[in-house]
Amino acid sequence: MEPEIFGMLGLALIVIAWLPGIVETIRTKQPGMKKRFMLLYFLGSASLAYYAVLLNSIPFLILNSLAALVPLVHLYFHIRKYGLSGLLKPTPSP
User: Which of 7-16, 22-31, 36-45, 57-66 has the highest mean pLDDT?
Assistant: First the structure.
């Protein structure tokens, strides 16, 4: 059996697990992450995506590229709700 099948299976399961949170954020138009977490999540995922390129690992490249998009969705709705100046203020309580 091709070892990459396990990578693709893991990729599919993780993306399926993310979907409810992303759909909820888009549906309610409410950011679901704190700003610091958005930044750390994005930087970590982008770094892992680059590492996956170096390893030539397609499943991990796709996974970490998608993972880098997750905080960008939250950031988009945060900016829509609070504006760009809201990025410099403490995260408001829900």
Answer: 57-66
Residue 91 has a pLDDT of 60
Encoded tokens for 91:
């995260």
Q: Using only the alpha carbons of the chain, give its radius of gyration.
A: 15
* Residue 93: per-residue pLDDT: 59
> Which tokens belong to 30?
């409410």
Distance CA 25, CA 94 (A): 13
The domain in which residue 64 lies consists of 24-84
Number of folded domains that form the chain? 1
6 located within any domain:
no
* Structure tokens belonging to residue 12: 């599919």
The pTM of the full predicted model, rounded to 2 decimals, is: 0.68
CA distance 62 to 31: 23
Is residue 71 within 8 Å of residue 33, measured between CB atoms?
Answer: yes
Domain membership flag for residue 89: no
